[in-house]
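Researcher: Hi, I'm a grad student and pretty new to this. My advisor asked me to get structures for two proteins we've been looking at. I'm not sure of the right format, so I'll just paste the first sequence and hope you can take it from there.
Model: That works fine. Here's the first sequence with its structure tokens right after it:
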Amino acid sequence: MGGIFGQASVPEYFDGKVVWITGASGGFGEALALSLAQDAKLKGLILSARRQDALERVKESCIKMAGELQVKVLPLDLAKIDSLPQAAAEAKNFFGEVGILINNGGIGFRGLGEETEIEIDQMVMNVDYFSGVVLTKSLLPDWLEKGQGHVVQVSSVQGFFGLPGRTAYAAAKHAALGFYDSLRAEVADRGVYVTTVCPGYIATGHSQNAAKGEGVKYPEGHTSKGVLPEVLAPQVLKGIAQKRPEMMPAALDARAARVLRNCCPHLLFCIMRRRAQKEARQRKAHELTEKKSE
């Protein structure tokens, strides 16, 4: 059953499989690719993101680490939803199958809901939610026919609770968890596994590359204080190998916030209100500093 996880190691589970990683041009996606190249004897590895030059760099690093590894680069833009079914068909054609899909690609968001154009909300939802759903649906029929397959959705702790200034991002992450929770139950007895990974801060450029609400001078994120992607990747791959339904590799405060959201939501709402007030003061101070420097 898909809801019960075992104790397989990374080599035992991934050896001989075709793995497709989105968001593989850097950060956590690159770390996952390199860790797989080092620890498993894959049948094939497919790397996707928008920047082909960066993907080629990651490909070369993987090949240096595992000389016999077959690596294919498949550039794609997750915001272009209509192009993704064809991308999935191309991915399957590389090695005749895709056994494990790791939906890691995504975009961050920084800004206030009141000042964010709806087009930004839609773009974040497309990249962080709909893209993974489309790719999963494109591969699911083959998995169900064969009675084997595995989708991994890299989400966020913000799928469990929303932070101020993250309306679009938290919405997309909540939606993703809901979809994969439902899908997990539907395919649990049909050989297909569903894993959601909900990390806290990862030390990448995620915050700096985030979409921004219009006109918002917002404090930068805290990803620089997060766990290194090369440290997190082996832990996550181990959880995937064990077919864990859900992982939350996050700091204690994030874990506590999840518990509060379920057991004492009013307290969490008060904490988030104070956080919003603090960040409002930070924005105001930043704006005053900019005016003085003009």
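Researcher: Oh nice, that was easy. Here's the second one.
Model: And its structure:
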Amino acid sequence: MDFTSEFIEHGYSELGSIIPQASCAKILNTVHDTRKFDSSLFFDEAEFERLNPDAFNKNPRPGSNVLEHFPEELNVVERNTQLVDLLTKLLGPHYNIFRKKLVCGMPESKLPKWILDRISGMPSNNLAHFVKPEFTDITYFYGIDFHQDIVDWKDRRSDFLTVYVYLDEVGETDAPLFVVPNSQLLGANCFPHDLEPLNTNNSLWRYRSDDGKSLEVCHHVMTGGAGHVACWHPLMLHGTGPDLSDHPRLSLRYLIERDPDGGPYGIDIANDLISGPLETPEPRKDLDRRGLAVVLKNHLYELSRTAH
């Protein structure tokens, strides 16, 4: 099966290590020159309590995005012929990169204990509100449960996809992505999602949609070397457990939208196979008004703890 057909049928394509390791190393070296990935990124507990920050407007944004400092290095990714060919087939010749950022899976060993005590087991551990303002040009995670990328886009139609690039080798303890091919077939649903494990190692799940449909799906753990690339539909479930290694897992994450003209393209054909809605007025219900978690359950946190 070719990559285009794979995406259309399963909502997911894994291209492998198509970006040169030397190019990935150059990006990594540039990023590591900007900061240490340790407790110095975060407020101390007393300062955090005094400031009482919320979790909004803390992620990379125009003017505060580390990727703005090395556009030439990113050309190796964005102009890769295999990737461009696939994106053209899926999104049309004039597709548009509308979001790009560096994502850091923060190693548990480098997090202050007081932060770990507050976040362990929560469904979405974006560490944004713990991070000092000068370092919020990167997104830092301590795992996130199975979710859809439509989660950030209220009432937006599924007219885009995600491209993800590992910049270093990612093994089973390095917060690899867990992806769930075919899960997009139930459409857009509210996070956290209704998943029930069906076997002892939790690789098989019963996934239930908000309107009562259900589907048996299997997750795939995406390990790979530097330059490993995958793309997926915005309604395909995916997530990651905690980084249990001693170093950060740094990756590129792109959101790329469909050419507004022409078609049908691969994304349109994939959408025609989906039995549920392609957008949702309520993409998530795990956060309060300040963007702080109110739900305390995380399938992937529990699964990672059991496995390791």
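Researcher: Is there anything I should tell my advisor about the second?
Model: You could mention this: The longest helix spans residues 21-32.
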